[in-house]
Each structure stands twice: as structure tokens, then as C-alpha cells.
Design a protein that fits this description.
8-stranded antiparallel beta sheet, 8 strands, 14 helices, 55% helix, 403 residues
């Protein structure tokens, strides 16, 4: 009889991680498939909406025409929208895009965006379209599987924790036992049979996307568990903002008889443009009667533009700069916490990272499928091996009996 080789500590560790990887993947595979697929679809949401809803979001630029006064556009939207008051206006850097005026009704936390042609004051309609409704379904599937939030959110959260472990254990399993086998784990052998190709797709693509998948998992848990969100703020040393009713503190602080300003929104925008001298999208928070300042924020646009937002607070009566906040001046820990959403969605460096995230999400969507196929193939292989052993034993039995 030949003695079976004793497994090395590395082989035992590899076997343990392989078992963890296998059973966690089987247990959470379907949920992770849905979460990754919806994340893939959601990556280029704004670009898809601009194509599908071009009649609402795009405008024709007349030759030699200039944009109308912002006050005229706001008044037009308020008139068409009916109930509610304009709370902000978004001015895109792209001259072929419509302006968005946010109308907030009493009691609403968030307003509804209405699009308007800045050259003709043509009311384009609400940004709530069939396309946005579709992406809202995708969003709900991604965040809580279209279930009740209190049920679906923790399910997705724990599935994300499992995904985190799957990525880590997958990296450990990927590490070859022999140095000469490293190159094999980095490529897909397209000339091999379909089982080998499927195995290479799972291993190689999983390795190449691992870092992005880890980032997605770590940031995604921010919205799943309150304890995780609080812990993330503590680890990075950033004070967690308190959530409460909007505007109460401002009203107490600025309460005084309303005083009309003689400045136009264009005057404020001109000062903001000089303070934030680069190409970008503006958002003007329309000043309430009891507020002494006008808030204007700006974000850079471009293929590799960082998603951080700069902000200036201007005196309502003089347009003097009362406060200026540049994203680049913030400490790195604050930048990370203020960019959690854009880091998770791939918007952190605009189109550049969106492309990377889209490919990574697509790979992540395929991993439960290729992994399951690998598992089924192994089960079939084990079954054939057992069957062969049984047949061999039956063939040897008569010989032993005759002896």
C-alpha cells in the first residue's frame, strides 16, 4: 500500500479557504447576482437617461442666443409646477443641457426637478420619467431587493459582508502553490475546453477585479448598518453629522424682518465663477427671506473630473464672499467620508472610473454563475470517481473469491 502524502499547512489553509469560499458563495449567490447586476445597470444611469429622455434633458442652442435671466426661468417653473416653491436651480456646464429647477412642496424633504430651456424659457417637464422610474426599481432592488426596507436592507448588508469574505478567500485560493503557475492564473486559455475556460474566467477575472470589488463592498456597507456607518466615521476620525429637521436652526439664527436684495442671481453667479474658476456645473440654493447668505456649489466636469464639490457662501446684499469651502483643502479623511457615495458608484473620477466600475460589476455578476458551474463540474467529477471505484471493486471481488 502507498502512503498518502501528508498535507502541508499551506494546503490545509487553502482547503479551509476553498470550503469557506464554496459554501458562502452557494448560500448568497442568488442575492449577490441580483445586487451586482443592478449595480452594473445603475452605473451609467445619468448617461442612459440623457439618451432616452433627450426631449426633456436636452435643448437646442440658437445661434447667437444668450440665456434668459435666472429669475425669469425660476418664475416660469413655479408657475407651471403649481404648488410649491423653488429651492434651487442647477446650471450645467454643457450649453445643450436644460436647467433644472427644484420645486419643494410643504412638508417634503426633497424637491422635484423640473427642466426648462434657458434660451426660450420653454417648460420641458419633470425629470421623473419612465426611465427614472425604471432606475428607481433598479435602485430598490440593489439596496433592499424590493422588500420592506427593514427586512431587505440587512439581507443585502449581510450578503455584502459575505461578498467581502468571498473576495478575500478568492484571492487566497488564487495564489498558486508553485511559482511557475502564477502566469497561468493571470490568463484565460481560450483554446481549452469549455470547463477550463469557465474556470479561468472565474479565477482570472475575479483576480483582476478584486480591488474594485473590495472597495465596493466596504463602501456599500455604509448604507446597510448604522453601527458600520458610525464605526467608519470613528475609524477615519470624522464627526458624524446629526440628522434632524432642516432649516430649524437657520430660522432661529437668522430670524429678523425680511429685507429685499437688489442683486440678481446672475450677480451672485458672476462672483462664484471668479472664485471657482474652472468648468463645472453650478447649483444655486435660492435664498430664503430670513437668510443673510446665498449658497452656490460647483462640481468639475470632464472625463477624469473628481467628484468633490466646492462651495461659496455670499452675502445676500453685497455678494461679498462670507465663506469659501474647497474640497481639495479638506483633510484626506474628510474627503473620503464626503465621497463615500461617489466612491461606491464609481463617480469619484467621472467617466474614467465609471468604465472601470462597470466592467468590475459585470465581472462580479458573472462570478456566481461561473462559480456555480465549477461546483457542479466538481460534483460530477466526484460522482464519476466514486462510480469508477465501485465498478473496480466489483470486478476484483470474483478473483478474490476464487483464490
Amino acid at each position: 500500500m502507498t502512503k498518502s502524502k501528508k498535507k502541508t499547512p499551506w494546503q490545509k489553509t487553502r482547503k479551509l479557504f476553498n470550503d469557506i469560499h464554496l459554501w458562502l458563495g452557494i448560500g448568497a449567490g442568488l442575492i449577490l447576482f441580483v445586487v451586482c447586476l443592478t449595480g452594473t445597470i445603475y452605473t451609467f444611469r445619468s448617461e442612459i437617461e440623457e439618451i432616452v429622455d433627450a426631449s426633456i434633458l436636452k435643448v437646442d442652442v440658437p445661434e447667437g442666443a444668450s440665456t434668459l435671466p435666472l429669475e425669469t426661468l425660476v418664475a416660469k417653473v413655479e408657475e407651471k409646477a403649481g404648488a410649491g416653491k423653488a429651492s434651487s436651480i442647477t446650471i450645467p456646464a454643457d450649453p445643450e443641457k436644460a436647467y433644472a429647477v427644484s420645486i419643494r412642496k410643504e412638508g417634503e424633504r426633497r424637491g422635484t426637478n423640473y427642466m426648462i430651456d434657458p434660451y426660450t424659457a420653454e417648460f420641458k417637464g419633470s425629470s421623473q420619467t419612465a426611465t427614472s422610474d425604471f432606475f428607481m426599481i433598479v435602485f430598490r432592488l440593489h439596496r433592499w431587493l424590493m422588500l420592506d426596507i427593514e427586512i431587505g436592507r440587512p439581507i443585502v448588508g449581510w450578503a455584502t459582508v459575505i461578498f467581502l469574505f468571498l473576495t478575500i478567500t478568492g484571492l487566497v485560493i488564487w495564489i498558486p502553490q508553485k511559482v511557475k503557475s502564477w502566469r497561468q492564473g493571470l490568463k484565460i486559455k481560450w483554446t481549452a475546453n469549455w470547463k477550463r475556460i469557465n474556470h479561468d474566467l472565474h479565477n482570472a477575472l475575479g483576480f483582476y477585479s478584486a480591488i474594485i470589488l473590495l472597495i465596493m463592498s466596504i463602501t456599500g456597507l455604509y448604507w446597510s448598518f448604522d453601527w458600520y456607518r458610525s464605526g467608519l466615521y470613528d475609524v477615519l476620525g470624522v464627526e458624524q453629522p446629526t440628522r434632524g429637521p432642516r432649516g430649524n436652526n437657520e430660522k432661529k439664527k437668522d430670524a429678523e424682518p425680511p429685507k429685499a436684495s437688489t442683486l440678481s442671481l446672475a450677480d451672485y453667479l458672476k462672483v462664484a465663477a471668479s472664485e471657482l474658476d474652472y468648468t463645472g456645473d453650478y447649483r444655486i440654493d435660492l435664498p430664503a427671506p430670513n437668510k443673510k447668505t446665498v449658497s452656490i456649489s460647483k462640481t468639475k466636469v470632464g472625463f477624469f473630473a473628481m467628484a468633490g464639490r466646492d462651495k461659496v457662501e455670499l452675502d445676500k446684499y453685497t455678494a461679498a464672499v462670507a465663506k469659501k469651502e474647497l474640497f481639495s483643502d479638506e483633510p484626506i479623511n474628510h474627503q473620503i467620508m464626503h465621497s463615500i457615495r461617489s466612491i461606491h458608484t464609481g463617480e469619484i473620477f467621472s467617466t474614467f472610473t465609471k468604465i472601470i466600475y462597470f466592467i468590475s460589476c459585470l465581472i462580479a455578476t458573472s462570478l456566481p454563475i461561473t462559480g456555480t458551474i465549477i461546483w457542479i463540474n466538481k460534483l460530477k467529477k466526484k460522482a464519476k470517481r466514486k462510480q469508477k471505484i465501485v465498478i473496480t471493486k466489483k470486478e476484483k471481488t470474483p478473483e478474490l473469491a476464487s483464490v
